[in-house]
Amino acid sequence: MCKQRVVIIGSGMGGLSCGVILAKNGYEVTVLEQGTQVGGCLQCFSRRRARFETGMHFVGSAAEGQTLDRLLQYLEIKKDILLAPLDRDGYDVVCLDGQRYRFANGREAFIEQMASYFPHQRQQLEVYFDLVERVAGASSLHSLKHAESDAAINTEYQLRSVNEVIDSVITNPLLAKVLVGSLPLYAAEKDKTPFSTHAFIMDFYNQSAYRVVGGSDRIAASMVRTIEKYGGRVLTHSKVTKIICDDTHATGVEINGSTYIPCDYVISDAHPMRTLELIDSKLIRPAFRNRINAIPQTIGGFSVYLEFKDEAVPYQNYNFYCYNEETPWGCETYDEESWPKGYLYMHFCQEPQPRYAKTGVIISYMQMKDVAQWSGTTVGHRGDDYEAFKRQKAEQLIKSVELQFPHLRDKIKHYYTSTPLTYRDYTGTEGGGMYGIARDIHLGAACRVPHRTKIPNVWQTGQNINSHGILGVIVGTIVTCSELLTAERIYQQIIEANNIEH
């Protein structure tokens, strides 16, 4: 009996995890990657032998038996990677008005730590934490009990903004700001981003937080090996230029403008706008194209990748979020004088228990319009004025970080930069947005992308389909693969994979 053939467009977390699940279940899987390196946001890169993360800087819920741990076991990744825990007493540090606030793992520790800064808010902190757990727990993201076909798990908290809900629970305005201090992890915007998004992120990292030792590209490499073990293949330099359809369904894909690969099913891990550009079919109606093209995107980022001098910078076992104004909100709106309003500063974990950091990164928001004049150029060929622009922004950002970490500039051996243009060109994300589409309570279902398309054998996966981040993407993968397997079958396999270990 011939295996059914699945072509997967894109080798990000969504594409590779779909490939693993379907290859394990007997499908003939071909993953097509347009670039030289697989992994999407899992990619790392090296300069002068120094290694840097590009997207997956840390993960949560990966302690023994927790949700991500169980999924890593099922995807056969766990055996191939080593995770280094962040500081349980302060995995995240938020700096507001020069004062630092530490986020601790676990309910009691989190409440105790925050109550030490805000002693009169202990009861409110308990209500807040329990609400986060309740909203996250209503989702398959948290429980792994069943697959959700829609991201709207808890309708009320999908339709109420982060700030509105927190302000209804927390009576101290400063504490309300501190609690959203990690908002760059999901590019939250005031009065727009749903509280459910905040709850998923907070719950995910509060359970446990880790860095991938040696880089998250090891996750991608593991999945490629697993796909190949089950008879599949992952091809680089294979840009899908068209999804070929007849009057009723897709018959295959065209790569690099010439080669035709026939298949029974197509799964796209590309940005939904990129996916629609590949399809010329009456099955996709103009109204649907217009809706997808009108969805707002999250803001882009400017990154400065730091290579430190030997034994000059002690390794920081936490993530540092700093704001130069009195609030984390509104950093996406700035002018020449006010940028950067805030930043996220992290170190790369190159070995299990490093004493000193070899590399790190500073990330701050950047609008695509800041680099729009170079939008028609390609990586490495944008011109001297672009390089000068990046140097100026890098020096501004380093200077801002030095307010909290004096003399950091003296400890840097080399630095490298990326803009929303870089991200756009490497990931295909519209406008170089950090997390794809933006969730907006005012748009509701209009800003959700379905995993199904109107072409019956073409589906979508990736960060835009369910939620971004490693856990959100894998849950979206399960939703997509359920179309070929059933959710019950996948969840049973997850249970069985984890029982084997114990």
**Averaging pLDDT over every residue, what do you get?**
91
Which percent range describes the beta-strand content?
A: 15-25%
What is the count of β-strands? Answer: 20
Given the helix and strand composition, which structural class is it? alpha/beta
Question: What do you see in this structure?
Answer:
There is one protein chain. The protein is 34% helix and 20% strand. It is α/β, with parallel strands linked by helices and 502 residues long. Strands 8-7-16-17-18-15-19 form a seven-stranded mixed beta sheet. A five-stranded parallel beta sheet has the order 10-2-1-14-20, covered by helices on one side. Helix 1 packs parallel to helix 10, helix 1 runs parallel beside helix 15 and helix 7 (162-169) crosses helix 9. The radius of gyration is 22 Å and the shape is globular. Residues 147-153 have low confidence and may be disordered.
Write a brief structural summary.
Helices cover 34% and strands 20% of the residues.
Note the main attributes of this structure.
502 residues; alpha/beta; 16 helices; 34% helix; 20% strand
Describe the secondary-structure layout.
Blueprint: E1 5-9, H1 13-24, E2 28-32, E3 44-47, E4 50-53, E5 59-60, H2 67-74, E6 83-85, E7 92-96, E8 99-103, H3 107-117, H4 122-137, H5 140-143, H6 155-158, H7 162-169, H8 173-179, H9 195-207, E9 209-212, H10 217-229, E10 233-235, E11 240-245, E12 250-255, E13 259-262, E14 265-268, H11 272-277, H12 286-294, E15 300-308, E16 319-323, E17 342-347, E18 359-366, H13 384-402, E19 412-418, H14 420-427, E20 458-460, H15 469-485, H16 487-501
Parallel strand pairs: 1-2, 1-14, 2-10, 7-16, 14-20
Antiparallel strand pairs: 3-4, 5-9, 6-9, 7-8, 11-12, 12-13, 15-18, 15-19, 16-17, 17-18
Helix pairs in contact: 1-10, 1-15, 2-16, 3-4, 4-9, 7-9, 15-16
